[in-house]
Write a structure and sequence with these properties.
By secondary structure, the chain is of the alpha/beta class. The chain contains 17 helices and eleven strands. It has a six-stranded mixed β-sheet with strand order 6-11-10-9-8-7, sandwiched between helices. Strands 2-3-4-1-5 form a five-stranded parallel β-sheet. Bound molecules: adenosine-5'-diphosphate and magnesium ion. The site of adenosine-5'-diphosphate (ADP) has 14 residues, from helix 5. This is AFG1-like ATPase.
Length: 437
Amino acid sequence: MLHAQQASHPAAKTPLEHYSTLIESGTLQQDDHQTRIIEKLQGLHDEIVKYHPPEISPLPAQRSLVSRLFSSTPAPAPSIPLDHIPKGLYLYGDVGTGKTMLMDLFYKSLPRSIKRKRRVHFHAFMIDVHKRVHAMKAKLGAGGGDPIAPVARDLANEAYVLCFDEFQVTDIADAMILRQLFEKLLNYGVVCVVTSNRHPDDLYKNGIQRSSFLPCIDLLNTRFNVTTLNSGTDYRRIPRTLSHVYYDPLTAENRLEVQKIFEAFTSDPSDPVVPNRKLEIWGRPLFVPESSSAVAKFRFEELCGKPLSAADYIEVTKTFGTIFVLDVPKLGLNQKDKARRFITFVDACYESKTKLFITSEVPIFQIFADDSGKKSEDMSDHMRNIMDDLGLSSDTVVSSAMFTGDEELFAFARCCSRLVEMGSKQWAETVGDRTHK
Ligand SMILES: Nc1ncnc2c1ncn2[C@@H]1O[C@H](COP(=O)(O)OP(=O)(O)O)[C@@H](O)[C@H]1O
Ligand SMILES: [Mg+2]
């Protein structure tokens, strides 16, 4: 099925060819709904291959105070006619239907000549945007004008193909800048592919000042091809072979076993394990207790017992392809902060496709279990539905009174689902590339 030229350049495969190869090898199951989406992504791929993004002229280097006083930043008009810019895809649907997998195939298939591209989890992207807006405000000074336009310009300069995984709006700070940011990015000729669990009309439901967010919904509906992947198949439910990545309880034998794996991963004499390697996160140092250049080891307390943030965990998981977390305790109700940080850490590992090894006091699904004697029968219908959506049986995850509110419960349930996925053989195989770097 491969053309001779492509066989010698495997990276030159198109999204459709990538997808067909995975079906033929039996890695993926044939799915007509996914085929329909991959055909759309193929169409977008073909347009992007021919697309010449508009030049983004540099901003005047130094604007005088007078010019700043007498001019406001005009919203940039599209620098080329809108119909010359390929229309991006907004792909939404239930969990586990393959949205992220399809978007990743699309991203992987972009020609090597396209250097200005970026694939990012939406949450990480917004952290980056707020950081840039903050820095831009400081740079512009008081009365310096709108910081979003120059930030959008910088982002567009860095990447004209942007892939966002798990687009969601839960935060008023995000909701208030998104329309302006997206409008500017699109007008600069940026093409986006977005995955989300929700149709644009259902974003930021019940959010504060939702009416101010409606223009953003309008923008998504008009400037994207909004498509659903409503296959009804949740591939996460399909049983997976578990490979050994979680070791419980904390016996001498388990500790020794994991120590041996760590030694095997760090046996290269030219890349020895060093204590207290320093990472810089936004100018602050973070010390990694034991690490080689690609493998890190933390005790749970060192990782989640200190007030580290999502940005810290993202940096750690970007730096190390394999991470060992030792001595994870069963977390009680009074350790909610640690539990939250652990969830944030697991999310970061999942996004960066980090390989994890964990030793813990109890089986990994029970680390959030509280001591209130709750049984799965006591699980609320709401929680049960969430578990069901994520393909987890209520017996796998013992109910926890630690998490309250929809967002927290969802994050908790998703964390459990991700730990299952990250313990699977398929995960070990798909992350293989990173660990051998
Ligand atoms: N057609 C398929 N056959 C087998 N496994 C699949 C198929 N589509 C997706 N998967 C697997 O199912 C899991 C969930 O897919 P993912 O893309 O993460 O879903 P979503 O982003 O929609 O929640 C992934 O591990 C993915 O590799
Ligand atoms: Mg996904």
